[in-house]
Amino acid sequence: MKNNPGIGIIGGGIGGLTATLALLRKGFDVTVFEQASVLAEVGAGLQISPNGVRVLCLLGLEKELLDICFEPEGKEIRLWNTGDTWKLFDLGVESSARYGFPYVTVHRNDLHQILVKAVEQASPSSIRLDHRVCGVEQNANKVTLSFDSKPAATFDIVIGADGVHSKTRELLFGAGPAKFTGIVAWRGVIPAELLPARLTRPVGTNWVGPGGHVIHYPIRRGELMNFTSVIERHDWTTESWSSAGTNQEYHDDYPGWHADVHAYISAIPQPFKWALIARPPMNEWVNGRVALLGDACHPSLPFLAQGAVMALEDACILARAFEEFDTIAEALDRYQQARIPRTTRAVMGAYANTERFHNPALADPRNGQAYIDEQWAADKVVERYEWLFRYDATRVSLTDPEAADA
Questions:
Q1: 3-state DSSP: the chain helix, strand, coil percent, rounded to 5?
Q2: Catalytic: 217?
Q3: 48 part of a folded domain
Q4: Domain holding 154: CATH number?
Q5: What is the pLDDT of residue 310?
Q6: Under 8 Å between Cβ of 262 and 248
Q7: Is the residue at 15 inside a domain?
Q8: What is the C-alpha to C-alpha distance for residues 351 and 356, in angstroms, rounded to an integer?
Q9: How far apart are CA 9 and CA 336, in angstroms?
């Protein structure tokens, strides 16, 4: 860009901090505003596939990431009641050989803290805490952010990376439609020492069954087991990651499920539950000098393990666009043209997995085995995942929209 614009980023989560770091690495002047008074991410585990790890490595975080992550040997499918097991795909060494980067699992907070430290090292004054945005106003030249109980700030460009409940999106694009899916999610993190050895295998596991599914995988070097599941029920509509539930209620949601599933549930120190709310993909992310990023513009159901990874890719493409194009308008336009087709496809892929993971055919063991053999056949697994893992946000063309979803 001919001039070095001042860039304000709303939201100090994984997407916002990755964008901040990517822009700082390219020499831009960036300030990120976070509404919390302390940078402490809530949540549990994340799966970061090779397309996301590539971005983190580009930013110089490979050593830090590998120090705190877990590299699963593979992923598998298990049938909800019998425990029958199918290999989904190999990871570990094969992932690095096939895609150039590993597939890792991490605690969300561990990844968040890596990004915080990297941003602070690159620019100690870039992160502003306790700044809750309440207004976004712009003219032909500038964008002004207003905050609750804090002075306003003016920038050349603003990026809204403030998550699924984005205030930026609400102010400039409208809140948009949101619909309860009829699905409630549960999560918990289990210290590995609380589990028998057979329940700490070095793989990611996806149990599928009628009306629900369960996912678990090791995180933090294998010291913890991340355990997440969903079930179809209509009596809980609170969309909050911090709503505590009880182990007994958790057990009650999975009658007839395999004893291993219930062993994990029993070992969770404190389970949490939240309602899954569906929002359609947006077809416009830019309003003047303001653009959206991550869950602010493409929130997804957590059924493809790509939510955080799509935000990492967004951040990389955004920084590249500011480096490669001369004007703010062109850079923001190229950014959204490169990202909207791919993120929309990922969101729709997650929707499709809802029916796949919860299909009524899974109720009967014989039908369930045949269904899994069909739906997780090798060619279908390649079709669902290869286009995700091979994508290279660090090199993909930003001038050819067709190539952006290669």
A1: 40, 25, 35
A2: yes
A3: yes
A4: 3.50.50.60
A5: 98
A6: no
A7: yes
A8: 9
A9: 16
